[in-house]
Each structure stands twice: as structure tokens, then as C-alpha cells.
Amino acid sequence: MKKFSILFLLLFGLSIAPAITLAAECPDKVFWDGVELKKGQIGRVIIQKPTTIYKNVNGSFESSRTVKPGENFRVYANKSTYYHLGGGLVIKDDSTILYQTPSKTKLNQLNCKPTKAATTNFTIGNNISTVNAQLGAAKKSVVNEFGAITGIYHNNYDKFYAISTLSNKISSLYTKDKAYQVNGISVSNTISQLENEFGKNYETTGNTYPVEIITYSLPKYEANFFIDVHNDNKISAIYLVDYQLINKNPNLYPKKSTTLETGYENLLFHLINAERKSHGVPVLQSAPKVADVARKHSVDMGVNDYFNHNNLKGESPFDRLANGGVQFRNAGENIAMGYTDPYFAHEALMNSLGHRKNVINTAYTHVGVGVYFAKWTHGSIPYYTQNFIKP
């Protein structure tokens, strides 16, 4: 398919402020306000005023360093008048700090013991009923670039799947679920583990480094493994596509349609929230007025053949939001062009540090996505705009 093999793939970000094993799973990580809880942790201290952290040296406390307001530290024990921070470090319990404990729910998640996995066998070519029996009904359905229907499945954005069908059979499958396996390989595995299982006969994004996508041509389908360059080059998502589906659209770019543009917008919204959930931060609400601003910017870039956060009138994203009647305290924008579907666009944004920060930033509560297919020599080319805000 080579969905990523095009001459130019552009991104800009701006901000202010298959057999599948599905287990009754414990979370891989537990987050408390965006910070990972560690085994043995009983709480945290948040520094209110400049104070000193001490180190236990042979039973005596010696000054280690001065800490500033706003810093916070994990607490592993509360003994007498000192909190123990691990590594022999302690801090005095006084008015310079605020001590907090995690909720019982968080502690239960932290101490969760996994139960025996329940195995099912839905993969490319299986009837969609096998998916519905395991995951329930799709939360939403959209049209993809092949003209197939894509169902979006998740449990409050956990166990996220986007599964397309042709004649009621699975024709493509994208997931961020760590319980999903392809020949023993799952999300969070490394490139070395992937190569050990599938070999080194694969295509990548080209001669770029680090590698962001690894694609294998398997007997019945194409297997794309997205690589997270900001997380030790581990697999961040898996995308399988039946060759029958690929052959329905042999051209690199799909035909322009309002239905497809809307489908891309909806899918990107859900991909953003699945990503945020996997990073332990709150999901975002949909903001139609913000989406309208984002969509108009994508249209403007596509029609007038430019690619920039500032439009040809010199208006910034923040100007455009204000002009669109959107009130905000915090705002940010991601733009991209040239990516043939939302999966490749989203994963590319996540591999660009500035865009990644916007996608998982806790300063935002709402997002609007706008997609436009502009005329191009080889058909039509998508422009993407994501506007993030906190009202």
C-alpha cells in the first residue's frame, strides 16, 4: 500500500500555555494527575515554599538540595515527622509542603492482579460478529478512504479499535490495545522483538532515522507497526489491511468527498482521545465551533496552496479562534498535510515532539478537527487542522 511513501509529508505545531488475546486486564501503568504511580508509593508531597530535602547518611540526615514551590515527589513511607521519598531521601513534614494520598481506586489499580486471559480469534477475513461478541457494538461508524465502513470500538477509550468491514468481514484493523497480538507481537514491543518474530524483510518510511513505521507484506494482509520514537522506539499502534481492500483504491490518494472529510475528522477526534487515555490524561470534549475554525483553515490552506499556522491575511490560530467566536484561556494548534489517512497523520504527529505535547497536554479540555481534500496532480490531497482549547 505504501500509504506513507509520498514526496512530502508536512507537520507544524503551535501552542500556548491476527489471533488476539484479550485479558481481563490490569492497566500497564497507573497515572495520578498525569504522573505515573509507582509500586509501593503511598502518596506525594507538593512543595509550597522553598525547603530542603535531606539524605539519610549512616543514620544522620544531611542536606541534599533545596526544592522550589511547585515541585512534587513520590512518598513511600511516613515515619515520625519525615516523609520518605525513596533512595534514602526524606523531607520534613511542615508548612512548606502539602501531603496528598491517591484515591482507593488508584491504589486498587496499582495493586491489581491480572486474571487469566480470555482468547478469541478475530482477525482479517473473520466475520464482524466475532468482534461484536468480544467488544460489543461500535461506538461510532465512519467511512474510510476505501469506501468501507469503519466501526470505532472502545471502553471509555481503553481497548481502542477501529475496524473496517467489507461484506461483513474484517478488512482492516487498527488498535492501541496492548492485549492485542499478531504472531505474539503487541503494542509496546520493541523493534528488536518485532524483527525476531517477523524478520528484517520489511519496508519503512524511507531512509529517515529514526524509523517511524515498519510494514510487512504478509500472505493475506499488510501489517503496519507504528513506532513511537519518544518511547524507546516501542510499537505504539498496529494497523492491518486486507489486500482486497487496498486493491479497491490502487491510487495513492482517495477521491475527495464531504463524507470522507467528515469521517477523517471523526476518526482523528477519537484517535486523539485514545492517545490521551493511554497516557493517563483526561479525554477531550468535542467543540463544534472550534472544529468549524479548524475546518476553515484546512480549506483555506488547500484552496490557496499554502501550509502555515498564519493564514494569508496574517491571522494566527488565536486570531482565527477569536474571530470565530471561540473564547479560550489556553489554545494550541497542529497542522499536517499529505498523510493519506488519519492513522498515519496521527502517528506522525505523535512522533513530532511539539505536536505530541499538544495532543496530550492537560491544559486543554476541548478539541476541534478540520479536514479538507484539495485538488492535486494525482487526485486530491488532505490538509489537517487540530485546534485545542480550554474555555
Automatic annotation (TrEMBL):
InterPro entries: CAP_assoc, CAP_dom, CAP_sf
Alphabetic keyword roster: Hydrolase, Protease, Signal
Gene Ontology molecular function terms on file: peptidase activity
Domain CAP-associated as annotated: residue spans: 124-248
One GO BP: proteolysis
Annotated Gene3D superfamilies: CAP
Segments passing through the bilayer: none
Domain SCP, first and last residues per copy: 270-375
Entries under Pfam families matching the protein: CAP, CAP_assoc_N
Signal peptide: 1-23
The name this protein goes by in its record: Serine protease
